[in-house]
Amino acid sequence: MSFFVRQGDQLVAEKLAVSPWAPGKLSGTAVCGLLARELEAYCPDGFVPARLTVDLSQPVANAAFDMRSNVVRRGSRIAVVDATMVQDGRERVRASALFLITGDEPPGQVWSSAEDLPMPPDGCVSPEGSPPLFKSGEREWTSDFAVNQNAARKFSWHGLPPLVAGEPLTPFQRAAILGDATNHVCHWGSEGAGYINADVTVTLSRLPIGYELGLRADNTIAADGISIGSATLYDRSGAVGTCMVTALSNARRQIDFATTAATALTSESR
């Protein structure tokens, strides 16, 4: 299982990379993963990815595409790289990555949140990829979507397959894919999911460790059909970073997960 397979010089989408609500389009999770894959090739030695922002301004068709990238700045402590996905000569989505050099922590103490980061037992998800687990409020972890269709705070836990068959999934790619899934923990309520991502931002203080990765919904702020969702990204060692999505109301295509089999990690991009 993977998101894409190689056919010659092209990457061809597998079922996991295709939007379940628009079979002719790629899912936002797949698009974010591909852009991270393109951008991390420019990460200088001694640097780590600290931020990825993806503008999902147009749908990406399930068809051939080109990647274009350029280094915006390369300094001694910071590097910025941009990338775009192009189809039929048109820019579909764009992304920017910020890479920072690592170093010693400064002296002193600062405040940080001490909220719990719940984790299911070891072995609940597979390193080869398996359906995500969800937890709503005080309920137990489960892959049953109907049980989690409520207004309680949500958590999700994931084991992801390779982005491209034959290539190991890198920690940065894993974080990018999960960034798009922020929509699923922040905008999935008692009547289903009614928002689609217009952008995704993932910030990282370190790269994820291991093959498991979780999301904890932290806040949702909505007015007049525009909503901001923020979540904590974490692994079994603790918090890794934060994810934020800006989303648009899509009430006419609201997804009722209590009656609709869900095969994707999150809503399709706009």
From TrEMBL:
Acyl-CoA thioesterase-like C-terminal domain location: 154-244
UniProt lineage: Bacteria, Bacillati, Actinomycetota, Actinomycetes, Mycobacteriales
Superkingdom in the source lineage: Bacteria
Protein name: Thioesterase family protein
Organism whose genome encodes this protein: Nocardia xishanensis
Listed Pfam families: 4HBT_3, 4HBT_3C
Residues in Acyl-CoA thioesterase-like N-terminal HotDog domain copies: 19-99
